[in-house]
Design goal:
Blueprint: E1 8-17, E2 27-35, E3 39-43, H1 50-58, H2 60-63, E4 69-70, E5 73-75, E6 80-83, H3 96-106, H4 111-124, H5 141-155, E7 159-163, H6 171-184, E8 189-193, E9 206-210, E10 216-220, H7 222-228, H8 230-235, H9 243-248, H10 251-257, H11 260-268, E11 274-283, E12 286-296, E13 301-305, H12 312-319, E14 324-331, E15 334-335, E16 349-352, H13 365-375, H14 380-393, H15 409-418, E17 427-431, H16 439-454, E18 458-462, H17 466-471, E19 475-480, E20 483-490, E21 496-501
Helix pairs in contact: 3-4, 3-5, 4-5, 13-14
C-alpha cells in the first residue's frame, strides 16, 4: 500500500498548525504529498482537519486566513481552483452571469465568447435554463453550490480542491456534478473532502484516512482502505460503502422501530398540530411556495423532498413567518396571520436554518447552547449540567469557550441542532440537519430526533438523503417548482402509501 513516488503536484513536510486560543495542535508533524494527475480523497471524521488541510495545501492558509503554522517544506500548486464547503464564502459578484464573467475576464476571454462559455458551465452543473442575470442570494443553497463549482470549472485549473461540493445537492445533482468533474478533470490533480463517497469511491486513485486528531491513519487505494481498515472506519464513524445497510441491522436502529406501528394508528386519530389551506409564501411580490392543502398530525416526522430550488427551504421560512404569507395557517388550533409591522415568530415552533452560521447569536459554544434557556429564566446550575450533557450528546469539542465560527462545518451543524433541543417547542423544523456529517454523527442526530419525536415533538425536515426518507420519516411531502405536489404516508414496514396529488380547491 505504498504510495507511488512520482512528480508531486503539491506536498508538505512536518506540518504543525494550531488555531488561536486552542490547546492542541490540529496537525503534528504531518507529511503529505499528491502526485501530478492523482485523484485523492481525504476521508475522516467530522472536525479532524480535512478542510483545513485543503486550505493549507492551496495556500489560503496563511496567505488569506492567518493561522499560525510551521513546516519544513511546502510545495503549492501554481494553477488551482477551490470549491468551498460553504458556497456563500465563494462569490465576488451579486449576479450569476457577473460571477461567471468575472472568472472569464480574469482569464482574458473575449467578450464575444463569454455567453457560450457561461451557458456551457451552467449546463455542466445542472443550472441550464436558469435566467443568468439572477441574483445569487435568491438561489437555494444547493443551486449556489452548483454555481460555485461552475465558476471553478471555468478556470480550468491544473489542481482542483473540492470541499464537500455535493453536500447540499439533490440525488440527481450529486450524480451530475461528479460526472462533470470526472469529465473535466480527467488529466488534472484533484483533492476531495467528501462524506458522500458512493459516486467517487471507484474514481479516486488514492484515499488518505485520518484519525479524529488529524493524524494520518492509513493511505492506499480505495479497495485496500475499505477492505483492510473496516474496524477503524467503524471506530471513527467514517462513511464507507454498505454502512447504511449495516446500520439498519444494528440493535440501535431495530430498537427505534419496534413501537412505530402502534404509534401510526394513534397519529391517524390525532387532531392536526398544523393545518394549511391555500397557504402561500412570498419573496417581494412573487409567490415562491404554495401549499394548496396539508395537515401535520402530532408525532409525525415529515420529510420534505424535491430538487434544488424547488422551494423547500422557502416553505420552512414561510411556516416560521419569516416571509410574507397569505392563506389559512393554523398552529395548534390558533390562526396564524402575517403581520408586516409586528413580526413575531409563532409560539410552539423552533427552526434550525440550513446555514448554521445564520443561527448563532453569541461568542461561545457554551453561551450558544444556553441562550434559549436563559431567556426562559433557567437556573444556572441546572443549565450548566444540561449544557455539558448536550455537548457530549452532540459530539461537540471540549473547548466550550470556542467561538461557534471556529468550529468545523459539521460541528457548526451539530451545534445549531443542539440549540433547538430541549426548548419544549411542539414542532421542530430542520433544514438539512445531517449535511456535512460523518456516519457516526449522522446516525446520532437521527436517533436523537427519533427520541424527541417519541417524546411528542413533531418534526418537519428538509433532506436530500434518500436513506433517511426511507428509514426514518413517517410522511413524505414532495415540493416541485414551488408547489406541494404529492404526499406519501410511510408505514413502519417502510411501505410508502401514495396519499394523492395535492390540488387547489
Amino acid at each position: 500500500m505504498e504510495k507511488q513516488q512520482d512528480t508531486n503536484a503539491l506536498a508538505v513536510t512536518n506540518l504543525r498548525l494550531k488555531f488561536p486560543n486552542e490547546q492542541s495542535l490540529v496537525f503534528k508533524d504531518l507529511s503529505f504529498s499528491v502526485s501530478l494527475g492523482e485523484k485523492v480523497l481525504l476521508l475522516g471524521p467530522s472536525g479532524c482537519g480535512k478542510s483545513t488541510l485543503l486550505q493549507v495545501l492551496s495556500g489560503i492558509i496563511p496567505n488569506s486566513i492567518e493561522v499560525p503554522l510551521k513546516y519544513e517544506a511546502i510545495q503549492l500548486p501554481e494553477s488551482w481552483g477551490f470549491v468551498f464547503q460553504d458556497p456563500d464564502t465563494q462569490f465576488c459578484m451579486p449576479y450569476v452571469d457577473e460571477e461567471l464573467a468575472f472568472v472569464l475576464e480574469n482569464l482574458q476571454v473575449p467578450r464575444s465568447e463569454m455567453d457560450e462559455k457561461i451557458q456551457t458551465a451552467l449546463a455542466m452543473v445542472g443550472l441550464q435554463g436558469l435566467p443568468i442575470h439572477t441574483q445569487i442570494h435568491d438561489l437555494s443553497q444547493g443551486m449556489k453550490q452548483r454555481l460555485a463549482l461552475a465558476s471553478v470549472l471555468l478556470l480550468q485549473p491544473e489542481v482542483l480542491f473540492l470541499d464537500e461540493p455535493s453536500a447540499l445537492l439533490d440525488p440527481d445533482g450529486v450524480k451530475q456534478i461528479w460526472q462533470s468533474v470526472q469529465e473535466v478533470a480527467a488529466e488534472k490533480t484533484v483533492l476531495i473532502v467528501e462524506h458522500k463517497i458512493d459516486q467517487i469511491a471507484d474514481w479516486v486513485d488514492h484515499v488518505v484516512l485520518f484519525k479524529d486528531n488529524g493524524e494520518i491513519l492509513a493511505e492506499g487505494c480505495p479497495e485496500d482502505i475499505f477492505r483492510f481498515y473496516k474496524q477503524e472506519l467503524i471506530q471513527y464513524g467514517i462513511w464507507y460503502p454498505q454502512v447504511w445497510k449495516e446500520y439498519l441491522l444494528s440493535p440501535d436502529y431495530v430498537s427505534l422501530q419496534t413501537a412505530r406501528e402502534e404509534e401510526c394508528l394513534n397519529r391517524a386519530a390525532a387532531q392536526p398540530v398544523i393545518k394549511l389551506d391555500e397557504f402561500s409564501g412570498y419573496r417581494g411580490k412573487e409567490v415562491k411556495i404554495r401549499i394548496p392543502k396539508a395537515e401535520v398530525v402530532p408525532g409525525s416526522w415529515i420529510g420534505i423532498i424535491g430538487e434544488n430550488g424547488a422551494g423547500k427551504s422557502t416553505f420552512l421560512l414561510a411556516l416560521m413567518q419569516l416571509l410574507h404569507t397569505t392563506g389559512q395557517y393554523e398552529l395548534e388550533g390558533k390562526n396564524i396571520q402575517w403581520k408586516k409591522r409586528k413580526r413575531t415568530l409563532p409560539a410552539g415552533l423552533s427552526l434550525v436554518f440550513q446555514n448554521p452560521e445564520l443561527q448563532f447569536v453569541t461568542n461561545s459554544v457554551v453561551d450558544e447552547l444556553a441562550f434559549s434557556e436563559r431567556l426562559k429564566g433557567a437556573e444556572e446550575d441546572i443549565l450548566q449540567r444540561k449544557i455539558q450533557q448536550r455537548m457530549e450528546q452532540f459530539q461537540l469539542p471540549p473547548n466550550e469557550k470556542r467561538h461557534p465560527f471556529q468550529l468545523s462545518m459539521g460541528q457548526k451543524r451539530r451545534l445549531s441542532v443542539a440549540t433547538a433541543f430541549g426548548t419544549g417547542e411542539k414542532v421542530l423544523i430542520l433544514d438539512e440537519p445531517t449535511f456535512g456529517q460523518d456516519a457516526k454523527n449522522t446516525f446520532m442526530l437521527l436517533e436523537q430526533l427519533e427520541k424527541l419525536r417519541k417524546e411528542g415533538t413533531t418534526i418537519i425536515m428538509v433532506t436530500h438523503d434518500e436513506q433517511i426518507v426511507e428509514h426514518f420519516v413517517t410522511e413524505v411531502w414532495r415540493i416541485d417548482q414551488g408547489v406541494l405536489a404529492e404526499v406519501f404516508q410511510q408505514n413502519p414496514r417502510k411501505e410508502r402509501v401514495y396519499a394523492g396529488a395535492v390540488h387547489s380547491n
